Amino acid sequence: MERALLVDDEPSTLDAWANAFLQAGYEVLTAADGFEALELLHSSAVDYVIADLRMPRMSGGVLCERMRDDASIADAIFILVSGELTPPAFVRYDGYFRKPLDLAALFETMRRLRFSTERVYRGLGEARLHRNAPVERSIRKSDG
């Protein structure tokens, strides 16, 4: 089962998101700000982080940057959510949605991002296999 970390400083928003994600079949973790989210990310593996842009203490944008700079948690798909018209240009997020959330569109985007990410990793694995093939053949010849 895929796990999502939902981050928002509004308890009612967080509850609504959590209920929708649970009904859609996700395991759910919640945090009220970026600091709580970072603590959870270091103790629990997640597939997705859905975070509000504007939060006290640590914004969703800063959370995303801290995640991307930490190799141990950088691989989670990060979707930023905000009431603002345009997404921030400086943040390395995977998706951006405006509030109020269109949950059907969000879940479809998450599915597409997961599929794309898996294809990239599969491609990297195949590239490594092909790149190492001549070395493996020469080792086998020298052993034989």
From TrEMBL:
Gene3D superfamilies from the UniProt entry: 3.40.50.2300
SMART domains xrefs: REC
Classification via Pfam families: Response_reg
One annotated GO biological process: phosphorelay signal transduction system
Keywords of the record: Phosphoprotein
4-aspartylphosphate sites (modified residues): D52
Top-level division of the source organism's lineage: Bacteria
PROSITE patterns: RESPONSE_REGULATORY (PS50110)
Response regulatory domain segment(s): 3-114
The protein's name in its UniProt record: Response regulator receiver domain-containing protein
